[in-house]
Fold this sequence. Notes:
Elements: H1 2-6, E1 76-87, E2 98-107, H2 111-121, E3 133-137, E4 140-149, E5 152-160, E6 185-196, E7 202-211, H3 215-226, E8 230-236, E9 243-249, E10 252-258, E11 262-270
Antiparallel strand pairs: 1-2, 1-6, 2-5, 3-4, 4-5, 6-7, 7-11, 8-9, 9-10, 10-11
Amino acid sequence: MKKSLRRIAFMSLVCLLLVLSACGGGNDPDSNASNPPPDDNSNNPSNPPPVYDPYAQYEGYLLQGYPEQMWPLYESKAISSCNLDVFFPGFNMNPGYVCTYNVVYYSEKPKAEIVAYYAGLAGSLNPSSFYDVDTDINNYHFTARVVEEGSRNLIYLAADMPDNFYTEHPLWGDFPSDVFPVFNLTQQRYHDVACRSNGDGELQYTNHYNFSGGRQAAVEYYRTRLQNMAEYAETTNSDSTCTTLSGVVRGFDFQVLIYDDNIAVFLEKPFD
């Protein structure tokens, strides 16, 4: 239960395809022998054509505290995402805090070479039908899974930290708790912070907790605080089990997902 819970953390596949289109121009009707067109420097070595970088769009990075020396990124070309979850006692079925990092990155090395690299870091391997490498090193638990994507591979790494490594999320400082206070908290589930390469890149924050008092009371509580925010809107899903409040505040796009007994506050903003 403990290891499976640690992997609840978001592991997002960000695979954005860039399409290059060529642009051609017609003849200039004003061109003549006395007014020749400018020289074509496209073949001039001093003016080489731009080089297409398939990884230029990825702006992900390793979050503070990731144990890179123990579980490094092998021949990484770009980081798609990195997130850190801190699961709170009670919800995680353990007496203490459970903390896990997840990293998704690209490499052009062959899958067999990548798997061999991580297996070589392991003292011994745990049996697994899902992960290519599953191992315990000291008080850490590490996994690696390689997904082949043509000429490159997408690698999912997880680093489960020693128990109680964090007793509060070290990157939670930018979460605007004054705007999104908890409502009738009965059990804190987890705090998550993630950096992702979506679009121009963004930081994401998630606060998930259980509450008492009923969904309508929670909706009214947050509506009072948020209804004057930019782009405010309310929606209810098709089976009427969740009400979502959304809008923009302090540079964050927000969503507050309110169920009958639990609430998830989700924020995201572009990289600075």
